[in-house]
Amino acid sequence: FFHWGLHAWAIYIVMGLALAYFTHRMKMPLSLRSAFYPLIGKRVEGAAGNIIDTFAVLGTLFGLATSLGLGVMQVNAGLDYTGVMELSTQNQIILIALITLAATISVVTGLEKGILYLSNFNIILGFILLFFVFFTGPTLFILKSWVQNMGDYFQQFIHLTYWTAAYKGETEAWRDWQKSWTLFYWAWWIAWSPFVGMFIARISRGRTIREFILGVSLVPTLVTFFWLTVFGNTAIWFDLFGGGAENIAAAVGDSRTMPTALFMLLDKLPFASITALVATVVITAYFVTSSDSGSLVIDMITAGGHHEPPVKQRIFWALMEGLVAAVLLLAGGLVALQTAALTTALPLSIVLLLICWGLVRQLRKDPARAKKYGVNPLEIQREEKDRARKATASARQESMDLHN
């Protein structure tokens, strides 16, 4: 819950709210550079804006490549568990190629056709699998666990947020856990923030800021908690009370067998061969939709915020995601994927802080806020123009002094 809960969606709220405000309220292009307008003004249209969008493109590209690389590991594990395909790096590269091909076809057909149909199919199939496990598994135990898990999460929320293992010493185990879990997940969410933020911004037209924050923070978090509880606590129940030789917790604790844990769980439920196939299709379709949607977002950024970028550009970025994922997988597997996410998240974290600053500055000058607090928005605009004129005059005077 801690790594997939409010912290992740808070990052998306910052990015999504800024993009939604400057796009729908300020009538600016749907691009990361627009959020910097209060800080650098019209320079967002020049080289400075290009640099900002480059960070967004790289973050989205490596974030999606990390997800794709991790995803094919689980897909390959599922196919290996069911006897369809052996677990190997070569087969994972083949799966990346197939997923990239499907994503390319989907992104070429556009948002209203390929991406929409595939996303709806994936949601329906995913919920079928979710409720199958819920009703055929220990239903009462799942419901009780869901309530208790949320209680534990909110009780430990502040403690875990600031926990750094300071009193555990510089032992390698604690350092590795912090790096491989908390830091990796935070970096992963930050790398995904331009992608998810732009998606949320596009569908949030007409919402108030309060509605936006509540909707983005609560709805996906609660759904995620329920999903994790259904699958996670069903596995815990089988380990605690179900008997059997296979220990799912032991599989999760070993990075080599971790991707097979889901299929070990499904093997303990009815219709195991069918549900394993459904789970593999859901995972594959999820990464296809992530890849094609991410390609479209990168296309929009590189096309200056246009909603219909050129088809050739869409194909290029879809292929680039697959290529980067394959290279990272060959270079070092899981470690290389995690390193890529951490590396791209560092500059994007600075970008997020600046976006917060710019958004707050612009909200203070918003006409609706000015009217609410009895301030004339025209006076605010005049003050801004006066400051700009004074700054320009001062710069000219300094230039003249230098020449003299």
Task: Write a concise synopsis of the structure shown.
This protein is mainly α and 404 residues long. It is built from 15 helices and no strands. Helix 4 packs across helix 13.
Number of strands: 0
Give the low-confidence spans. none
Overall average pLDDT:
81
**Helical fraction:** over 70%
Name of the CATH architecture of the largest domain: Up-down Bundle
Under CATH at level 1, the class of the largest domain stands as Mainly Alpha
What is the string of SSEs from the N terminus onward? HHHHHHHHHHHHHHH
- Counting DSSP H or I runs of 4 or more residues, the number of helices is 15
SS strand fraction: under 5%
- The structural class is mainly alpha
CA gyration radius, whole angstroms? 24 Å
Main sheet? none
Number of domains: 2
- At CATH level 3, the topology of the largest domain is Amino acid/polyamine transporter I
Distance between the termini: 65 Å
What would the principal axes of the Cα set say about the shape?
globular
